[in-house]
Automatic annotation (TrEMBL), chain A:
<keyword id="KW-0449">Lipoprotein</keyword>
<keyword id="KW-0519">Myristate</keyword>
<protein>
    <recommendedName>
        <fullName>ADP-ribosylation factor-like protein 2</fullName>
    </recommendedName>
</protein>
<feature type="binding site">
    <location>
        <position position="69"/>
    </location>
    <ligand>
        <name>GTP</name>
    </ligand>
</feature>
<dbReference type="GO" id="GO:0005813">
    <property type="term" value="C:centrosome"/>
</dbReference>
<dbReference type="Pfam" id="PF00025">
    <property type="entry name" value="Arf"/>
</dbReference>
<comment type="similarity">
    <text>Belongs to the small GTPase superfamily. Arf family.</text>
</comment>
<dbReference type="InterPro" id="IPR005225">
    <property type="entry name" value="Small_GTP-bd"/>
</dbReference>
<dbReference type="InterPro" id="IPR045873">
    <property type="entry name" value="Arl2"/>
</dbReference>
From TrEMBL, chain B:
<dbReference type="GO" id="GO:0005813">
    <property type="term" value="C:centrosome"/>
</dbReference>
<dbReference type="GO" id="GO:0051457">
    <property type="term" value="P:maintenance of protein location in nucleus"/>
</dbReference>
<feature type="region of interest" description="Disordered">
    <location>
        <begin position="181"/>
        <end position="215"/>
    </location>
</feature>
<keyword id="KW-0539">Nucleus</keyword>
<dbReference type="InterPro" id="IPR038849">
    <property type="entry name" value="ARL2BP"/>
</dbReference>
<keyword id="KW-0206">Cytoskeleton</keyword>
<dbReference type="Pfam" id="PF11527">
    <property type="entry name" value="ARL2_Bind_BART"/>
</dbReference>
<dbReference type="GO" id="GO:0005929">
    <property type="term" value="C:cilium"/>
</dbReference>
<keyword id="KW-0963">Cytoplasm</keyword>
Length: 184, 215
């Protein structure tokens, strides 16, 4: 670790949280980010790189990193693991065909050393679509109950209507703050 | 600000190779002090040198060369390209390496690891502009903005120089002015690529370096 990185860690502001949002392509990561931030969600195109938003929420400064999910882009995810406090895994609950792929990618992330300390929030997105699997079923398919290494929660939501986005965010912030900020 | 800033003279005197500033007095003082205050002095001297290195023109050149090399990759869009991350990483590495090399040059036997430990043991004292500035180099969004500002400045300035070109040619005899005006008109018809390319190398400006100096 170089000098600047050490200084950065030392001087990290209290109540500053870094969230990394990942998931397969078309899961709705960017839509969640923009909806949560109160932005227009009608003109979102597939993310080929990454987006960053700094949001103020409940007195916390949230640095949210949203990285493109297409298969060819997933090898870049590793460049964004460092210093992550919370991992938000976004699932297209209506895309049953790719749920297995979705599980593999998510389970692989949980083995990453640099994400070892991160809280996991799974957004079972697109609950507004008629064919969407409920969060309970996504939980089984992704085998969330087998996770012992991370704090986790699954939250059914809809990025389009905004339903339950706040609940999920509040939970992950609470979990992170109870882990990190009470230690000082 | 709790960091004690070492006046330049004292910082110089602490290094054996500079013996023009009453080194004897200083050494006596050192002999009489405890281990912890020797460590404090060493720490403060290092911080003083970091300030010196950062304020030096050579460091501004290093930054400008870096911006020059990569600014063309940066576009003013909300979404970021993956290559930005690589470039930012190289930026942080370049600055860290530069600091380390120059500190070692000023303080023979300097070890970054040792200094890093000293920093961590002074967690609560480490404040002040110099540290804020060092940390700001690691801020991705600040870096992106710096690149975009640099790009805007380069591309904006090239238009200014194009205007200068027209003004200069107007002072020539009538025939020459017409020819120059025609040449300018001709190049703008072809698009601005050519004149921009021609003036870009001259555009690395003092404006930019002053913008990025310690505030």
């Amino acid at each position: 670790m170089g000098l600047l990185t050490i200084l950065k860690k030392m001087k990290q502001k209290e109540k500053e949280v870094r969230l990394l949002m990942l998931g397969l392509d078309n899961a709705g990561k960017t839509t969640i980010l923009k909806k949560f931030n109160g932005e227009d969600i009608n003109t979102i195109s597939p993310t080929l790189g990454f987006n960053i938003k700094t949001l103020e929420h409940r007195g916390f400064k949230l640095n949210v990193w949203d990285v493109g999910g297409q298969k060819s882009l997933r090898s870049y995810w590793r460049n964004y693991y460092e210093s992550t406090d919370g991992l938000i895994w976004v699932v297209d609950s209506a895309d049953k065909r790719r749920l297995d792929d979705c599980k593999k990618e998510m389970q692989a992330l949980l083995l990453e050393e640099r994400l070892a300390g991160a809280t996991l929030l799974v957004f079972a997105n697109k609950q507004d679509l008629p064919g969407a699997l409920p969060a309970q079923q996504i939980r089984e398919v992704l085998e969330l109950d087998g996770i012992t290494t991370h704090h986790w929660l699954i939250q059914g939501c809809s990025a389009v209507t905004g339903e339950n986005l706040l609940q999920g965010m509040d939970w992950i912030i609470d979990d992170i703050s109870s882990r990190i900020f009470t230690m000082d | 600000m709790r960091i004690r800033y070492i006046p330049f003279k004292m910082a110089t005197a602490a290094v054996p190779e500079f013996d023009d500033l009453e080194p004897m007095d200083f050494q006596e003082e050192m002999l009489g002090s405890s281990n912890s205050s020797i460590a404090d002095t060493k720490f403060d001297v290092t911080v003083g040198y970091i300030e010196e290195i950062i304020m030096d023109e050579e460091f501004q050149d290093l930054q400008n060369n870096f911006l020059d090399k990569y600014y063309i990759e940066f576009e003013d869009t909300e979404e970021n390209k993956f290559v930005y991350t690589d470039i930012h990483k190289e930026w942080v590495d370049t600055i860290e390496k530069y600091l380390e090399t120059n500190l070692a040059r000023k303080m023979p036997g300097f070890h970054m690891q040792e200094f890093a430990q000293a920093l961590e043991s002074r967690k609560d004292e480490v404040c002040g502009e110099i540290f804020d500035m060092l940390v700001s180099f690691t801020d991705f969004l600040a870096f992106k903005e710096l690149m975009l500002d640099y790009r805007a400045e380069k591309e904006g300035r090239s238009i200014d120089l194009l205007e200068d070109l027209v003004i200069t040619s107007m002072s020539k005899p009538a025939g020459g002015a017409t020819a120059a005006a025609a040449a300018v008109g001709g190049s703008s018809r072809q698009g601005t690529t050519q004149p921009q390319l021609a003036v870009q190398p001259a555009a690395s400006g003092s404006k930019l370096s002053s913008k990025h100096r310690v505030k």
